[in-house]
Each structure stands twice: as structure tokens, then as C-alpha cells.
Amino acid sequence: MVKKIVLAYSGGLDTSVAIKWLKETYNAEIIAFCADLGQGEDLRKVRQKAIKTGASKVYVEDLREEFVKDYIFPMLRGNAVYEGFYLLGTSIARPLIAKKQIEIAIREKADAVAHGATGKGNDQIRFELTFYALKPDIKVISPWREWTFNSRESLIDYSNKHGIPVTATKEKPFSTDRNIFHISYEGGVLEDPWSEPPSDMYTMINPLERTPDRPEYIEISFAKGDPVKINGKNMSPARILQKLNERGGRHGIGRVDIVENRYVGIKSRGVYETPGGTILHIARRAVESITLDREIMHLRDSLMPKYAELIYYGYWFSPERIALQKLIDDTQRYVTGTARLRLYKGNCMIVGRKSPNSIYSYKLATFEAEDVYNQKDAEGFIKLNALRLKANRFLRKSNV
């Protein structure tokens, strides 16, 4: 019998309905947990709304620094990008929320945990894989897989009937998820992949027509793969990301519109704004280009699709992700240095890079006169590497 449930609560449509539905369906005490991941909301109002909707207790925890330091930065060290475009802003938030939810459930001696993710999406998997990884015997309740509501419109009707205040409307029903790393938009008017997103949908970045007409230059310094300074000033992880969001947003940097493959097998259209994260990806590559050995870089990059997939699918606490992270982190020992970037009209361009650990050699790279590289050596190198190609052609009579 379920007597106490800890619900991951955002204050949005789904979880607002879930409080009342869980209370009525299970006749249980509902404890709401709201994680402050930098979504920019007044969480005092979220707390009040949860209590008003039926929660007996509300936990609100400021997790911004932990989120950036222990989740976003490790992910960035792996250069994780899902299917070429998605920087995983929603994916990386779920394991931290679920971890804290389990901690509260243990503290409160709760019988179950619940979330507001739909039965069609990825978030249900990310939440529940984390729940089971951290507390295998926990009972998990997923309202979307149990209740009779079949659309967000039906949730809006239920909310209106029971006096639950929500911001979604039938005219503008797309779903958003925001944290310090990004904001996502899905569903509703975006479900037609041919339709251009509404012009008023920008949140974290300026439309290009409203960006400055002069470029801005910034310098980002890294230590062992993590950003530590902007323009020579030390900042905390969350502060760095916040500042880069402001700079990138001002110049319209970091918006993508993609159709991605969900873990459950459905293709889904998503629009994402990730200004600071986009800048950090580009800046890190600049510092890596002069500090990483070629084969180490190529090995790490070859693992990136799998690493990104593990995060997207919800396997943050899996042994394979943890093993990959150890290898990735070892590659970052010498990634210390500074990247200089030019921000202008949606573009983030590398214009300089330097490092005390640089393995770039002017004497080797120059086209001018030098005495450290004998160009004649290249002939033997090429011929040795051509042996198998010549053998394939002569011995197998293969066609080109």
C-alpha cells in the first residue's frame, strides 16, 4: 500500500495535475520536490502552488552549482552531442533531479516516487533508470501511463475544472523545459516539422535582427578541461555558464531546430536554445586542438556518439558511462589554456588559442625555412602506407 509519494514537481501543467490526481487515486500524502536548476522562475510561487494544489510538504533545493560542476562540465569534457546537433540540456538534468528525489524519499520514508513525464518520451526512462540504479526496491508511479487523460488539452480542461492555475493554453500548447544550460520547446505547434517556429518563441537568445551590429570578443580559460575564467576573471561553474548565456544570447548564438530519434523509437521535433553551452563547446575544441595528442583526440571523439547516446537514453549512473567518463577525464589532464572568440550575428568564431601545455610547434608547422623536418622523409612514409592499396589493386584486380 502506498502511503507517501515524492513527486518531481516543476509547477507546470503535467505535474500540477499529477499532485491532485495522485492524491485522489492513491489516497496518499504527496511530497513535492522542485529542483532549482537555474530555470529562472520564482520558486516561492512554485512552492505555494504545490501546497495549494494538495502537496503536504515541498522541498526546493538550489542545485545550480552542483548541476554545472558535476553534470554539465563532465558532459562537456566528452564533447557530447546527440545526433549532430542536440547538446543534451534536458537529458543531463534528469539524473540529478532523480538522484535528489531518491534522497528525499529515503529521508521521508516514502513508499514511492513519481514524475510527470509522458509515456511517449525520453524523460520517463531517464527518471526511472536513475531511480532503480540508486534504489532498486523503490516503487515508481508514472501518472501518464495510468490516468485516462490522452492529451495536454484534456489536462488543461481538468485544471480549469479543479481551479489549478497553469500557463499552457489550447492555443499555445507546446511544452518547454528550461535550466541554466538551455531551454527546449516541443509539441503543439511544433509537431509539423515543415512549419517554422513562432517568431515570439525566443527566450534565452535574441532573434538575429535584434542582435548587436558590432562583434564582441571574449576569452575563456580552461583548467584540465573545465572553464574557470572569463576575460581573466575567476568565476564559479554556474556563474561562468550564466555569463556565457548572457553573452551568447545577446548575439543570437545557440539555437537549433532538429528532428531527433527518441529512445522509444519515435521521431520528435525539438527546438533548443543553448547559448553558453554552444560557446563552451567551441572554446574547448580550440584549447584541445593545441593540447591533445592526435590519437588521444581521435579516440575520445570516436567514443563521443556512444557517450552522448548513454546520456540521452538515461544511463548516467550506468557502469559503462562511468567507465567512459574515467577515460574521458584522463584525456583532459593537459587541456589547460585560453580560447579567444568573436561573437557576432549568431556565430561564435575562434580567433585565437594559447596554452602552457601546447604541443603545437611553429618550427614544424611553418611553410618557411626550417631545419627540424626533412620533407624527403615523406616519400618513404607515403610509399609504406600505399603498400596495401597497391597490393589490393594488383593482386585482386579490384575496380576503383
How many whole angstroms does the radius of gyration measure?
25 Å
Name of the CATH first level of the largest domain: Alpha Beta
The biggest sheet amounts to: 5 strands, parallel
CATH topology description of the largest domain: Argininosuccinate synthetase, chain A, domain 2
Q: How many helices?
A: 12
Distance from N terminus to C terminus (CA atoms, Å) equals 70 Å
Mean pLDDT: 93
Tell me the domain tally: 2
Strand elements, count: 14
Write out the strand line-up for the largest beta sheet, numbering strands in chain order.
3-2-1-4-5
Q: Which residues sit in consecutive blocks of at least 5 with pLDDT less than 50?
A: none
Helix content: 40-55%
Any descriptors?
400 residues, five-stranded antiparallel beta sheet, Rossmann fold, 12 helices, five-stranded parallel beta sheet, Argininosuccinate synthetase, chain A, domain 2
Question: Would you give an account of this structure?
Answer:
It is a single chain. The chain has 12 helices and 14 strands. The protein has helices spanning 13-26, 43-53, 64-77, 93-108, 123-134, 152-162, 237-250, 275-291, 294-313, 319-331, 362-365, 377-396; strands at 4-8, 29-36, 57-62, 112-114, 139-141, 175-178, 183-186, 216-223, 226-230, 233-234, 255-261, 267-273, 337-344, 347-354. The strands form 3 sheets. Strands 3-2-1-4-5 form a 5-stranded parallel beta sheet, with helices on both faces. 37% of the residues are buried.
